[in-house]
Amino acid sequence: MEVNENFSKKAQEDLALVELAQKGDQAAYTKLLDRYRDSVYFTMLKMVKNNDDAEDLTIEAFGKAFNRISQYSPNFAFSTWLFKIASNNCIDFIRKKRIKVTSMDSGHRTSDGEILYFDAQSNTLDPSEHLMKDQKVKAMREVVSKLKPRYRELIEKRYFEELSYEEIADELNLPLGTVKAQLFRARDFLSNMMENKKHTI
Q: What is the largest CA-CA distance in the chain?
């Protein structure tokens, strides 16, 4: 890749790490994660006002970025590209949950300067929505049951029992970092299995 002459020293270092990551260098992925994990997390936290959701969204953002690392183009700094992925993923999450994270009058300003406004629709489901939700939960449980035992246990505790990362780590006597890493892998497996299930219906 050609280095953009407008890149800062840090952006140039990022580009070198991205090139290594694209070749499968796991240490490069770790360095990129370490560089931006905190700043992505605090950006997510500002948007959703919930620690656990911000943690989930941070892991998802890196997962999506790393899965698409071959598509990265050095027209923009890696950090700009990463935060765009993180912001878009977070906006989708907010829309799905229909949570009101800021005043509708003032909106929320993204890192790109765009002001976003969110609707504050009722969270009450009508009977048909309840039925659809029940069917989705049933389908999800069916797919989860096919995961490897250690991943199944983590998904069940996180999403069905709604335990925090810390509670899961305590209950399973695992380091917090291991819980987060394995949940990321479990979600990745789950996502692929759900996608395959959708295509077979």
A: 58
Strands (E), the chain: 108-109, 115-116
Domains with residue ranges and CATH for the chain? 9-116 (1.10.1740.10), 127-200 (1.10.10.10)
User: Do the Cβ atoms of 59 and 33 come closer than 8 Å?
Assistant: no
First to last CA, the chain: 42
In this predicted model, what pLDDT tens digit does every residue of 129-172 receive, in sequence order?
545 555 556 666 776 777 778 778 888 888 778 888 888 889 88
**Amino acid identity, position 187:** R
Q: Rg of the chain over CA atoms, in angstroms?
A: 19
Q: Which residues contact 110 (CB under 8 A, 6 or more apart)?
A: 87, 116
Residue 61 burial (CB count, 10 A): 25
What is the reported pTM?
0.53
Beta bridge partners of 14: none
Q: How many CA atoms lie within 13 A of 28 on its CB side?
A: 15
Tokens of 107: 């909106």
